[in-house]
Write a structure and sequence with these properties.
InterPro entries: EMC6-arch. With 102 residues, the protein is mainly alpha-helical. Helices cover 70% and strands 0% of the residues. The chain is elongated.
Length: 102
């Protein structure tokens, strides 16, 4: 199974999963740095906007790499995996009280 770019199904899955994970971790760190890690900061809607920006920023990267044909299931996978890694990263930073001021 290979698309026009020559990327096999397994390689495509590994690339998409890796980018989602890295984007989620980066979104968690940026959320902690930009919004903060205090309990009051965790209720801010700005951290969700940061997450959304990181989800949307992945799609041009996928087009450049050549894995851009996504269906509904693929889009849900990208959003869910990015959210999951963002949530874990931000929670660890918030619980540990790390200060990443900009």
């Amino acid at each position: 199974m290979s698309d026009d770019s020559g990327i096999t199904g397994h390689t495509r899955s590994v690339v998409v999963t890796t980018i989602c994970c890295l984007a989620g971790i980066a979104a968690g760190v940026v959320s902690a740095a930009y919004v903060g890690t205090d309990p009051a900061d965790a209720g801010s809607t700005t951290i969700v906007l940061v997450l959304g920006a990181f989800v949307l920023a992945q799609y041009p990267l996928y087009k450049i790499i050549g894995v851009g044909d996504f269906g509904a299931k693929d889009n849900l996978f990208v959003a869910f995996l990015t959210f999951t890694l963002w949530f874990i990263s931000y929670t660890v930073l918030a619980i540990s009280g790390v200060e990443l001021g900009v």
